[in-house]
Amino acid sequence: MAKDFFSKVEQEQIVNSIKAAEKNTSGEVQVHVEEYCKPAPMERAKEVFAMIGMHKTALQNGVLFYLAVKDKKFAILGDAGIDKAVPTDFWDSIKNQMTVQFKNGHIAAGLCEGILAAGEQLKAHFPYQNDDTNELPDEISFGKTEN
User: Fold this and answer.
1) Could you report the per-residue pLDDT of 61-102, keeping only the tens digit for each?
2) CA distances (Å), origin 33, targets 8, 14, 80
């Protein structure tokens, strides 16, 4: 099952990375893990983005890290607000960083690295405001398991 892919310690590291990435920003980071991905990973990421309500953030500054672990596929999807603010090759550069870690078998570490890199951009473009609220949960969401 997707829920068992990461150990409890790895899950804590990922959640801690989400919290660290969000600490100095109004942006929101989500991680969604499934076993399989029938459509292209970016198409599935768009479905998940809508399904978990990421499009509802006030500043459209959510970032989804989507992983299909058995298929070894992943995508990073930024909402419209963040996509307008970051350089055009930004998500590709994070994906490339993560891929190096993934190829070495360090899935959790690569994911944490990507989350923290996204957090730096979120902080630069969407700094923390005194009235900020955490609009989305920091926990990892797990999805369908059929292939």
Assistant:
1) 889 999 999 999 999 999 888 888 888 888 899 999 999 999
2) 14, 12, 22
